[in-house]
């Protein structure tokens, strides 16, 4: 007897019942996988975004707001700090590098990030390679109005190397197009970055000095009209300073130094993210409870669905037993049908869970600028293997129970 062929024919003979059973199992598994994907994605997305930012020096105020503004390009800057502080940090023995980052303008809603060319040598601690790498073009000249685009900015605006654009005042797009543009000086695109998988894919990176000159011209207070591009502020400022310490002990020494500073604060962005994850931890606990509840429901649904499916066919199989088919053979067929329905349910659930997560993260990335990874985690694999194993045992038990009954009682 070809058991697989018999199992396959039985399933498709009752196609509607098979589809309903597999869909019920798949929906439950899909919900479980979605919970796992969201929990894993949020954690990894936040951690990946904060990786390049060892320490941040910013104005006194909310450290969360400084982190949101600097790391995630969200919210408004707390304020500016004196540029002289950068020079002091560069000569500090505890500091490996210090890079200014200034905000205040945008292009079509994308943040313009004013900085120095040293940011292109800034490395991510764990990887040891430059954080910002070029897909095409070159580093900007700090004396000119030049810009390097994040990968998403280039893709969505259509700007290419050689194109020019005018920035707008403010960190959000103006309601009326062109109402706040700095039309007197346009930026020329000289480079496009590879994707960093984070908020800075949405950034337009320009020389910090160019932002100073734009605002000098706009307010007509510090520089006369027609001043050369190299003209400087009498009092230069930056929004934050990205600091890479020489080591952990040195970072703590810097932190103690800034506790005495009345104008600026030293922030560990990773600690802010940890605190944020702890705040979200209550929600994660709820998600875990939901996951466990869904898992129990999945097993209950598998048991009920397989039992119901086999029960509807039991009289047909008892007739086969009366015609000479063995109890063990029929139990094997019943188990095989249940096992295949679990496989169909897992496939359906995998597609459903990942499909919903795909559309969900596309929406969230547009709103938060955080890149959520879409990958198969070890927890997901363990969950699927656990469902397959326990589901198979349930199918085996159901098939044994059904075909251990006396034929005379059923016919």
UniProtKB/TrEMBL annotation:
MacB-like periplasmic core domain: which residues? 18-219
Transmembrane regions listed in the UniProt entry: 15-38, 289-308, 339-360, 381-403
Kindly give the membrane topology term recorded for this protein: Multi-pass membrane protein
The ABC3 transporter permease C-terminal domain, residue ranges: 289-407
The listed locations are:
Cell membrane
Give the primary localization class: membrane
**Which keywords belong to this entry?**
Cell membrane, Membrane, Transmembrane, Transmembrane helix
- Judging by the UniProt lineage, the source's domain of life is Bacteria
Q: Does the keyword Metal-binding apply?
A: no
Gene Ontology cellular component?
Answer: plasma membrane
Subunit (UniProt): The complex is composed of two ATP-binding proteins (HrtA), two transmembrane proteins (HrtB) and a solute-binding protein.
Q: What does this protein do?
A: Part of the ABC transporter complex hrt involved in hemin import. Responsible for the translocation of the substrate across the membrane.
Family indicated by similarity: Belongs to the ABC-4 integral membrane protein family. HrtB subfamily.
What is the name listed in the Swiss-Prot or TrEMBL entry for this protein?
Putative hemin transport system permease protein HrtB
Q: Which organism is it from?
A: Candidatus Avacidaminococcus intestinavium
